What we know:
alpha/beta, Alkaline Phosphatase, subunit A, two-stranded antiparallel ribbon, 13% strand
Amino acid sequence: MANPELAARAALTSRRSFLRSASGASLALPWLESLATAGSGKGQRQRPPLRMGFFYVPIGVVRKGFFPGESHAGLPAFNGDLSAIAETKTPVGSHRISLTPTLEPLDDIQHKVSLVTGLDRTFQNGTDVHAQCASCFLSSAVPFGVPSSAWPLDRTLDHVVADSVGDLTPFRTLELSCNSHRDNLESIYFDNISWYGTGHVAPSIRDPRKAYRRLFSTQETGQFRDITDLVLADARSLRRQLGQADRRKFAEYFDSVRAIEKRMDKLEKMRGQLARVSMAEPPEAHLPRGEYIRLMGDLMVVALQTGLTRVATLMVGPERWNTPFLFEGLFDKPVSHHLMSHAQTKHGEELLQIDRFHVEQFAYILKRMDAIREADGSTLLDNSILTYGSGLGDGATHQYHDLPIVVAGLGGRAFKPGQHLHCPDGTPLANLWLTQARIMGCRLERFADSTGVIPQLLA
């Protein structure tokens, strides 16, 4: 006679990945202790998997607001000459984080964050600076080392890592973008950070509804719009078999997915209303920027939480794209981040507000991840590596040295957080990528133009 407990465990395990309704809609499950221990022996817990994500900000930053010690420094010269700010540079080595005005939104989560400065990329002469800073950010190939490319663009880090862990999830990688504009002012090299290889872009999903449908396989109809309604009966059946802690986690997860649905509906309604109004800018220019970024960020978090993917990229905006965006709460009309960056003396205060705005959205995602408990009591952020960064060290002068980089998460306790690490001059950005790739389980001797890992980041 079959063991009822084992049968119940098997039923739970069979539904580890998805709850599915009769209509074909499905909803991925979060990491639950009841499921994590199934089949592993009484009292044993599986270790939560590691996840990796990237939060890419275009057009660099205003250095005096972002970097400690540069509040009174002048602008550096083009292409990385730091002589203008050398006297205020942070000494090489590890220090306690000093949160600048731009980084202050990280205050509540700084114990799981490291500021990494001094990382460089080499600009390959002959092509536009903006085209290289976004498209090559995650590849960092050796300059002139890719004969078929006008710039150092190769297979990007997210796909290199997915070569090792991508077969364990429904989606090898997830590429998201917050550029909803369709005027195509620039080529794909200004608007994508994820590449399968030279000349082969990994297209980003820009519409939250399309991202939602891809993740949850829903067929959108008027009769069944909310996925949580479609699978609720199956969810109730499963919930009765979960422990008390998992029931709370399950309810929180369903509430978060429901909230995503309602926010998508709100943005879609707003877009429809704007499309009927005659205005100089595209309707997308008037959509609230922060709400859009947070919504895409929440979709990324859900995908990482449920194991739909372990590797994700979120590009906050395009490079050198003059079409304006509405940074709600900052300005009363849409503005062009790129145009303003070329007049830093005139728009310095506004640019500082935009930089802080981006960090606020990054902090929102980090706090969401840190609030999600995994089966072993750790958080999603504890088991992740999420990197904030830009391909330019300064938005006004387009210098490629001393890039603004923040590494969040503990990487399964592999990282030593809460520090400001200033690397020696000439340290390649690829050293950080090699460090992260090895933590994710990749057996790489070298990545792109790396010269080694960054041991000071490791616990």
